[in-house]
């Protein structure tokens, strides 16, 4: 088997905690084999630039990265290179430039750390341009198929749980209903995990329909039991009771989920007159030091990805399944969206605890 000498690594899509820990693991493992590692700046934008934007990564440089948030390489979650928005407003296919950038750097393989969207784009580039790609899954949403963990999810759950812990005291002090709106895109993994861990009374996720009447009953039931407050956690993609998706668009025309927390607050106030406050946790869930579990997952994925390159096993993504790091074809992983399964253990757990979860 030909020995690989120079590999590239990039982070793509929304950042999250644990990315630097993964970069560190890749550098340690690859340098340990005598390989050279080039960090590509700002995902595919670094390969699109001329000269391609990269930096050589050495063990000394990455050792302090274990606890730092974000990504030292930068990232982007905008601009599909196959339909890239140009400054003059036109759309251009810039995939050839990215592929040429990879070859100009003399890379033998590329490790792409990304979510399903990024991995799909990277795979498309790899297929078109002969890029030897290995994928590492990351996303606080934890919605990538065939992996129980993606880097960043655990830290986001910890942050959301801590938010509930804090909200509980102020909720009890003021006899209020507190609503915490969390991220997660179209999957409710963050909400259900943090909701159980943080003692929520109501957990709303996009996968399970709910009614406002049932939420009101849950609040009243608690009041009858002498409990003067209620904690509600809701995923950003949960729809209104009428099925409307709530989004916000900024002046740049960028559209994101947002508003379901306030919608619920207004509904509850109107129906049963409870005093309600809404906290939108936002990007706090993506920032800061990674949890020990995310660091562990990042370390294991980084090492496994380098080993896949050594085996010449390209077009694969590392995965976490039943406490083992395995690998699956990237095509299979991105073909399956991992939403919360209504038969999931956590769904049963929440219901067993008397949490209102919809339906
Ligand atoms: O996919 C990660 C994520 O944080 C989602 O949970 C959220 O909907 C989205 O990204 C926010 O994206 P942006 O950073 O563009 O605001």
UniProtKB/TrEMBL annotation:
List the catalysed reactions. Answer: beta-D-fructose 6-phosphate + ATP = beta-D-fructose 1,6-bisphosphate + ADP + H(+)
Where does this protein act, in terms of pathway?
A: Carbohydrate degradation; glycolysis; D-glyceraldehyde 3-phosphate and glycerone phosphate from D-glucose: step 3/4
The listed locations are: Cytoplasm
Q: Which residues bind substrate?
A: 139-141, 176, 183-185, 236, 277, 283-286
Q: One GO term of the cellular component aspect? A: 6-phosphofructokinase complex
What cofactor does its activity depend on?
A: Mg(2+)
Q: What is its EC number?
A: 2.7.1.11
What's one GO MF term for it? fructose-6-phosphate binding
SUPFAM superfamilies, A to Z: Phosphofructokinase
Query: Per its record, how is this protein called by name?
Result: ATP-dependent 6-phosphofructokinase
This protein's species is Fischerella muscicola CCMEE 5323
* Gene, per the UniProt record: pfkA
